[in-house]
Specification:
Blueprint lengths: L2 H4 L5 E5 L8 E3 L9 E4 L12 H6 L4 E4 L11 E5 L2 H12 L8 E6 L4 H14 L4 E4 L4 E3 L2 E3 L8 H13 L4 E5 L2 H5 L10 E4 L7 H4 L2 H13 L6 E5 L5 H4 L6 E6 L6 E9 L2 E6 L2 E5 L4 H16 L4 H9 L9 E4 L5 E5 L4 H15 L5 E5 L9 H11 L3 E4 L9 H9 L4 H4 L2 E3 L3 H11 L5 E5 L6 E4 L2 E4 L2 H8 L1
Parallel strand pairs: 2-3, 3-4, 4-5, 6-10, 6-11, 7-10, 11-12, 12-13, 13-14, 18-22, 19-20, 19-22, 20-21
Antiparallel strand pairs: 1-5, 7-8, 8-9, 14-15, 15-16, 17-18, 23-24
Helix pairs in contact: 3-5, 4-10, 10-11, 12-13, 13-14, 16-17
Length: 481
């Protein structure tokens, strides 16, 4: 694509050099540059791309999009100056990849918990209903049936547009995407056109990045503020910030709820560890999911499918065949008669939801043993809250290591234990080694008990001092069985 066409929809402040150049690729990482590429110098949270303009040119960049034209600018390269490259890169990537979201229906899912389940179930639901679809999620990205490993919940704008373009090329009609608060603030979704947005819930998370809960709420709300009039916005009426999210949106607003009147309404008729019987908008359906939080997730899926024009009855039939997402409330039954549940819950609210779901099935007929930790180099404030939540709803708690990253595991465990009083500590054992913690829980468990192993879910590694070591909670549990 010619450079002048590539930046035709961008507010350009100044250009220096040949705008007729052919551009073969767009990059924000100077190491990825090959001959004929445009390098976009973004001021990131870790590094400033302007410091790498020279490296990009060495690697073959023929054009640079920047906020400051370098003093040593060369005639061999075209420079384009804009006010904010972070805001511009999405528009440029969208142009380069042929505006993929104008050729398929993209639905974004945002909130603290439930994003992966909702996006993944929507993807699987639409494929079951005969459509080609794509998925952008924490666990894995999919172009129809092809799996593409993922690094972040929401990729950078160039990777994102490249994936969406591959979906269009593969004939996908729909794409479902987790939208993280980081990606909203950092304009990673800039330039994309959404057919719909879903809000799950909001609780304390990522305060290491957003600093205040109010900033975190504003980040999520910005997604709905920017939805076009042609889109729909479906919000969780059971969350106290549910209606706040959509108060300034131009999109068509719909609500879902398990507690109050809403456009999409459900109640639990029966619940077992194998699944639930629900009533959704007056019709009964059996599903293979467990817990009130999953009823909310399935309602969001149902609402989105209906808003995308699907027949209600057809959606319910397809929902009844859906299976839980990898590492999200996965129940494993031991030969000894106890149940182990592996779940990604890594916030106090998620832990509360999962433990509520377990008690809803157990009805006091067995003990609950919870194994949990907290991630290193993340919001330290939630560590004592996680421990208190686990103790409040468990008969025995084993505090252990999660992904310590660059922190000492024992320090993280100590931060969690600091939230407990003497009485609460009577329920708690601290075992830093996660494998030993899971083994201990399995040794303690009796017939009819439930072990919750929380925090890692689908992850098959433990990150220690920057190195990922293979570790899978499900594998550990099965070895104990």
């Amino acid at each position: 694509m010619k450079l002048k066409e590539l930046v035709s929809n961008v507010n350009v402040l100044e250009t220096r050099g040949d705008m007729e150049r052919e551009i073969h690729g767009v990059q924000i990482d100077s190491r990825q540059i090959v001959g004929g590429d445009l390098f976009v110098a973004v001021r990131g949270t870790v590094a400033d791309g302007h410091n790498y303009i020279g490296k990009a040119q060495e690697n073959g960049a023929v054009a640079v999009l920047c906020e400051e034209i370098p003093a040593d600018a060369t005639e061999a390269v075209t420079y384009i100056k804009v006010e904010n490259t972070e805001q511009t890169v999405g528009q440029v990537a969208t142009s380069f990849y042929g505006n993929p979201t104008s050729k398929l229906k993209l639905v974004g899912v945002t909130g603290t918990n439930g994003k992966t389940t909702i996006a993944t179930v929507l993807y699987e639901l639409f494929r079951r209903m005969g459509h080609k679809a794509g998925l952008l999620s924490t666990v894995c990205n999919y172009v129809d049936g092809e799996a593409i490993p993922t690094e972040h919940t929401t990729p950078d704008p160039i990777t994102l547009n490249a994936l969406l373009a591959r979906m269009v090329e593969a004939g996908c009609e729909y794409a479902f995407m987790e939208v993280s608060s980081h990606s909203i603030v950092q304009n990673r979704i800039g330039g994309l056109t959404f057919a719909g947005g879903l809000f799950t819930n909001i609780t304390r998370d990522h305060l290491d990045y957003h600093k205040t809960f109010e900033n975190y709420i504003k980040a999520k709300k910005l997604f709905f503020d920017n939805l076009p009039t042609t889109a729909f916005a479906i919000t969780n009426a059971d969350d106290k910030n549910g209606m706040v999210m959509v108060q300034n949106t131009k999109a068509t607003v719909k609500t879902y709820s398990v507690q109050r009147p809403a456009d999409f309404k459900a109640k639990i008729i029966e619940c077992h560890f194998e699944g639930m019987y629900l009533e959704i908008n007056g019709k009964e359906v059996g599903v293979q999911f467990i817990g009130k939080f999953n009823v909310s997730n399935l309602l969001a899926v149902y609402g989105a499918a209906v808003m995308l024009g699907k027949d209600e009855q057809e959606v319910l039939v397809a929902l009844s065949a859906m299976k839980p997402v990898n590492g999200r409330f996965e129940a494993l039954r031991s030969p000894s008669g106890y149940t182990a549940i592996v779940d990604y819950a890594h916030t106090p609210d998620a832990l509360e939801n999962v433990l509520n779901a377990i008690h809803g099935v157990l009805e006091g007929k067995g003990q609950v043993i919870t194994v949990c930790g907290a991630g290193g180099n993340r919001d330290k404030g939630k560590r004592p809250l996680m421990a208190r939540e686990a103790v409040k709803q468990s008969d025995k708690v084993i505090i252990t290591s999660d992904n310590p990253r660059f922190e000492e595991p024992q320090d993280i465990v100590n931060d969690m234990l600091a939230g407990l009083d003497e009485e609460q500590m009577k329920k708690v054992i601290a075992i830093v080694d996660r494998r030993q913690a899971i083994k201990t829980a399995c040794m303690i468990a009796q017939k009819g008990d439930v072990i919750l192993i929380a925090g890692k879910g689908h992850e098959d590694y433990q990150e220690v001092k920057g190195v990922k070591h293979h570790f899978d909670d499900k594998e550990e549990v099965k070895a104990c069985f």
